[in-house]
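Dear colleagues,

As part of the handover before I leave the project, I'm documenting each prediction I ran so the next person doesn't have to rerun anything. This entry is a single chain, and its sequence is reproduced below.
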Amino acid sequence: MNGLEIQNLAVTLGGNAILRDVSFTVEPGQVVGLIGANGAGKSTALKAVLGIVEPEAGDIRIGDQDVAALAPRERAKKLSYVPQGAPVHWPLTVERLVGLGRTPHLTPWQEVREEDQAVIRSVMEETDCWHLRNRLATTLSGGERSRVLLARTMAVGAPFMLADEPTASLDPLHQLQVMDIMRGQAACGAGVLLVLHDLSFALRYCDRLVLLHEGGVLASGTPADVLTDAHLETAFKVKVARWSEGGEQFLAPHVAGG
């Protein structure tokens, strides 16, 4: 299986052009960050790849397969998704909710198998939510719910994982744990596509970045290529302070001219 390729993607919603001529690739083993100001089209790009919104134009392929032509179950096996701030309406236990991630691998009415249960426990332990397994999902805090939904997505075992701001609502420790998990998914061969707002996380954790601006690609490449002063001032209207500590690089934005 080759990379996830997005070519010349265009999306119009409600008569407004949200994306135009957007192209990038997510290779297996890579973490690719989608960054940009609010309204740049980042979440829409993820939803177009997943088929949640219908593109006006463009091709989305995994290797030689047209993603749009895949049956829903086959698409679900290849592309998993962590939505941003998704509510949970069903009074399911947390363990049962995470177990829904195994659905694409089961036939209708098939019980969860022993191997599925092993996957469920493994991903819940990795996301620090195994201790929540008997709680009703509707009683979780926002941060707990985010970790549980990440575990559900990991349970799919898809070769490509898409996540929309996976660190939102999390405390600093769990933000770092989630980003380490994303890197771990890539280290195991998955292609990971993240929507991020934290520029330090984008710099430290991503192999490649795609900077969206006004619906198009302003810059694409390594973090060093994309996170230039000129690009950040154009896209975000900010300047940044840069430093390194313990071999890690950091940046902090401040208002341009401030």
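Residues 4-255 form a domain with the Rossmann fold fold (CATH 3.40.50.300). Residues 86 and 143 are 11 Å apart (CA to CA).

All the best with the project,
I.
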